[in-house]
Amino acid sequence: MKKRTVLITGANKSIGFETARVMGKLGFNVWLGCRDGGRGQDAVSRLLSEGIKVRLAIIDVTDQKSVDAAVGQIKSEDGKLDVLINNAGIPGTWPIAPESQSISDIMTVYNTNVFGVIRVTQAFLPLLKLGEEPRIIMVSSGLGSLEWVSDKAHPYSQVAALGYTSSKTALNGVTVAFANSLSEYGISVNAVDPGYTATDFNGHTGYRTVSQAARGIVWFAAEACQTITAGFFLDGERAPW
């Protein structure tokens, strides 16, 4: 049986990189998506040194030409895509009160975290429709949960990052829209909360490791039942919208 192929965007470091490493260890053909060729090649070299089959796809999710070029590359070399992990994201300016965050900064966040995901997903659909048990995984955030952020007793309600938090709420909505539309093709689409993970995003203040964060993503990519779709999950359990 031909090995399954996965593309992970924003995968040169942190959660994306660890996800690529684990999926490579599981035998997937890994495409490591990165907008910076130099950083991407460094990450690829590190994975190759571990015996992982990985290739670099230079992809800027905010640039349609870049996305189309990545589609062409993967189509030429593999002819299909089995798993798409939309991991690329940016935090924007924070902490900052919502009344003070500039519209331009919020738009920049949305261009990557929301419009970038839509752009990439739409572009790769033809290859996903040719894949084996095709899956799309949106790396979201618990900060996108309206239930959690509206609960004054929950620590997420204290995070002042309007652009980022609302972009992840929007991403959850995008997840459901694609899930409903693509169910007829047997493509599962789900959002995953990696939890509060120590990354560059938060100055490494998170209490979870990248290994813990990647576990829930990998579970959906490699183990979860294909019929599960239109969900939001943390560590394999449903999270509140």
From TrEMBL:
InterPro entries hit by this protein: NAD(P)-bd_dom_sf (IPR036291), Sc_DH/Rdtase_CS (IPR020904), SDR_fam (IPR002347)
Key word Ribonucleoprotein present: no
Xref: Pfam families: adh_short (PF00106)
Gene3D superfamilies cross-referenced by the UniProt entry: NAD(P)-binding Rossmann-like Domain
Keyword entries, A-Z: NADP, Oxidoreductase
Stated family: Belongs to the short-chain dehydrogenases/reductases (SDR) family.
Protein name as catalogued: NAD(P)-dependent dehydrogenase (Short-subunit alcohol dehydrogenase family)
Organism of provenance: [Curtobacterium] plantarum
